[in-house]
Structures are given as C-alpha cells and as structure tokens.
Amino acid sequence: MKRMLLSFMVAATTLAGSASLAAAQTLEAIQSRGKVLIAVDTSVPPYGMLDANMQPEGYDVDMAKLIAKDLGVKLELVPVTGPNRIAFLESKRADIVISTFGVTPERAKTVNFTIPYGANQIWLFGDKGQPAASAADLSGKSVAVVRGSIQDNTVTRVLPQDTVIRRYEDDATAATALLSGQVSFIATGTLIGDKIVKRDEKKYERKLLLGLSPYSIGIRKGDMEFLHMMNTFIYTYRLSGQLDEMSKKWIGAGLENLQSF
C-alpha cells in the first residue's frame, strides 16, 4: 500500500513538474530570443488586416503590441489562418494565438484559453422576405454556419430541432451559400454579416440576435503559469479601459457587457 501511495505521489509530482517546466520554457524561450511570436490572422478586418503600406493593423494586432510591451520584448507577428492556428501553436511556431479565437469545448481539448479580451455579436442574417422574429420561425429552415465555431454551438442550442444546419469550413464558403441561395440564413458575427448586407441592402438584413461570441487568447496546453500571466495582463487592460478604447476604435462599440469565466 505504501509503495502504491509513493508511486502515486511521484507520478503527481512529475506531472506537476512537467507542467511548470513547460510554462517556464515558454517564458524562458520568449525572453532568451528577445521577442514573442504571436499568431494573428491578417485576413479578418478589423481584427487583423494590412494597411496601405502592407503593415498589419487591427484589434488583434493592437492587442499583440500591448502584450509584447508588457513582456518587455519585441513583437514578431506570425501570419496564420483559422484552420492552421492551433497547429502553429502546438508546433511552437507561435507562442500564443490572438486571432478572434472563439472558445468551444472541442478547441479546449487542445488549447488553453485566457479570459476573453473581446466579443462579437452573433446574428442571424438573411433575406428581408424571410420571417425570423424569433427562434421558432427557423423551424424547417436552413442556416449556414462555420463548422465547430461558436456560431455552430449557438444555433445547435437555441434553434428548433428541425432547423437544417449546414456546416461549412470557413466564413467565405458559408457566406457564399447564402448569397447563392443554397441556404435561407447565415449565423455569423456582425463583421461578416454586415458585409453581406452592404452587398445588397435591398435584399439582406440582420434578422435575429442569437448571442455573444467572446474571443480569447490561445495558449499551449501545460503552460498554466504563462496562462495566468496572460490572464493578469488582460485583467489590467480591462480595468484600465484600454480594451474598451481599442474596441471602440476598431469595432465601433465598447465592451461593457464582456463576459468572462
């Protein structure tokens, strides 16, 4: 019995030591190279995009600059896309991911998430002639979402069971499905949805607010101390009003109702 208990204690100590070592290695690697590698998708304005001089800018870029400043190192932005950002994190090609990363149970299996640093509203968009005053109106109707996204989780939870949810690999494909008439509605953030409306304001409109989609910074599994450090940074940015100012600058709205966990 004593041997079993001793073995358990050794295993627990080893696991705890491994987690601490992983965190220490992340911060140590950042400090030794003198720069932090932050993955950002520059194809998702106004969160990440290129200005007239082909320099990155946007909400996520400003967030990355704040973190690099408080870490006391230089910033290197690592270009990523939605599908490959986790792979870049796991392979250590990036130290953290700041890319409007929505928190989902599936993603949480491979990534540790910080407390949210921003949020996007999830709306149902569609043809003005299609009724959608409440979730019940979506019974039997088709709705496009990005597979595995927070929108996917939201519509699955709040819309009627007989709603036809069509899942696509990215925002562009989901939007194309609506524009080509393959689906009646799309559930997405205001950034994508409002662009659809602007394409044809006589045809499309915001239909129904489904919820909020907070986004967090992605950290490698095992980096608990580094995760705590990033949470502390975000907390101070929220208290100081910096995140609220950034949101008003890039998104056009403050973060008064920003959720946390």
From TrEMBL:
<dbReference type="InterPro" id="IPR018313">
    <property type="entry name" value="SBP_3_CS"/>
</dbReference>
<dbReference type="GO" id="GO:0016020">
    <property type="term" value="C:membrane"/>
</dbReference>
<comment type="similarity">
    <text>Belongs to the bacterial solute-binding protein 3 family.</text>
</comment>
<protein>
    <submittedName>
        <fullName>ABC transporter substrate-binding protein</fullName>
    </submittedName>
</protein>
<dbReference type="InterPro" id="IPR001638">
    <property type="entry name" value="Solute-binding_3/MltF_N"/>
</dbReference>
<dbReference type="GO" id="GO:0015276">
    <property type="term" value="F:ligand-gated monoatomic ion channel activity"/>
</dbReference>
<feature type="domain" description="Solute-binding protein family 3/N-terminal">
    <location>
        <begin position="35"/>
        <end position="254"/>
    </location>
</feature>
<dbReference type="Pfam" id="PF00497">
    <property type="entry name" value="SBP_bac_3"/>
</dbReference>
<dbReference type="GO" id="GO:0030313">
    <property type="term" value="C:cell envelope"/>
</dbReference>
<dbReference type="InterPro" id="IPR001320">
    <property type="entry name" value="Iontro_rcpt_C"/>
</dbReference>
<keyword id="KW-0732">Signal</keyword>
<feature type="signal peptide">
    <location>
        <begin position="1"/>
        <end position="24"/>
    </location>
</feature>
<feature type="domain" description="Ionotropic glutamate receptor C-terminal">
    <location>
        <begin position="36"/>
        <end position="253"/>
    </location>
</feature>
<keyword id="KW-0614">Plasmid</keyword>
